[in-house]
Amino acid sequence: MFQLPILNFSPQQVAGVCETLEESGDVERLGRFLWSLPVAPAACEALNRNESVLRARAIVAFHAGNYRELYHILENHKFPKESHAKLQALWLEAHYQEAEKLRGRPLGPVDKYRVRKKFPLPRTIWDGEQKTHCFKERTRHLLREWYLQDPYPNPSKKRELAQATGLTPTQVGNWFKNRRQRDRAAAAKNRSVAHGGDGPRRRKISGEGGWRGGDRAAGPQSGLAPARNPLCSDRLRSQIAGRRGCESCCSLPRPAPDSLG
């Protein structure tokens, strides 16, 4: 039977290699290194208590899409506060990806909020302090000022603004993106109201009122010309004119007597 080579590394040396590979971002190599570790019970027991090794296993499980293994590691081992932010991101992103796969579409802010409510952070990677996704008023004021100057900040401006507000460049970028989306939605709504909205309805009601009350409202004292009845056709008017005589309907002047034969 084929056996993996046994590496004579101490738990401290294994932890050091895991930390180095984690910092380099080479997850594939980190995974191969973890697979090469000894499986002897005594060695496994020591490695399973090492925070760097456990964090490395969680990272490899996440990138491999093995979310069940990731959840098992995070829920059953108490991690120090220094690792909380990174492991919390893995926990949330894994649940987001599972929800997206289940729904067949990207998640919006409301969807992600519901996922966070449904799958709260385990106390092994959370100190119990309530986190808020709203920024302080001073931070929002500063972001709005920068937004009015430039709605599309470049990476260097994002870093500068992140230092000024205490946020991360990613948080700054997300705030600007969300603000642009809200402004576009508001502008589209205003255009819809300006070109449609209640305007046609008011004109229609006004037109109906004119039709109903036009003849009654018009008169010698009103100063308004009688409204034309749409039911009175040209043919009907010609018949009426024939009975009354041409002088009542014809606007041409009657010829002078001396001009006749």
From TrEMBL:
<feature type="DNA-binding region" description="Homeobox">
    <location>
        <begin position="128"/>
        <end position="187"/>
    </location>
</feature>
<dbReference type="GO" id="GO:0001654">
    <property type="term" value="P:eye development"/>
</dbReference>
<keyword id="KW-0371">Homeobox</keyword>
<dbReference type="GO" id="GO:0000981">
    <property type="term" value="F:DNA-binding transcription factor activity, RNA polymerase II-specific"/>
</dbReference>
<keyword id="KW-0539">Nucleus</keyword>
<dbReference type="InterPro" id="IPR009057">
    <property type="entry name" value="Homeodomain-like_sf"/>
</dbReference>
<dbReference type="Pfam" id="PF16878">
    <property type="entry name" value="SIX1_SD"/>
</dbReference>
<keyword id="KW-0217">Developmental protein</keyword>
<dbReference type="Pfam" id="PF00046">
    <property type="entry name" value="Homeodomain"/>
</dbReference>
<dbReference type="InterPro" id="IPR031701">
    <property type="entry name" value="SIX1_SD"/>
</dbReference>
<feature type="region of interest" description="Disordered">
    <location>
        <begin position="179"/>
        <end position="230"/>
    </location>
</feature>
<dbReference type="GO" id="GO:0005667">
    <property type="term" value="C:transcription regulator complex"/>
</dbReference>
<keyword id="KW-0238">DNA-binding</keyword>
<feature type="domain" description="Homeobox">
    <location>
        <begin position="126"/>
        <end position="186"/>
    </location>
</feature>
<protein>
    <submittedName>
        <fullName>SIX6 protein</fullName>
    </submittedName>
</protein>
<dbReference type="GO" id="GO:0005634">
    <property type="term" value="C:nucleus"/>
</dbReference>
<comment type="similarity">
    <text>Belongs to the SIX/Sine oculis homeobox family.</text>
</comment>
<dbReference type="InterPro" id="IPR001356">
    <property type="entry name" value="HD"/>
</dbReference>
<dbReference type="GO" id="GO:0000978">
    <property type="term" value="F:RNA polymerase II cis-regulatory region sequence-specific DNA binding"/>
</dbReference>
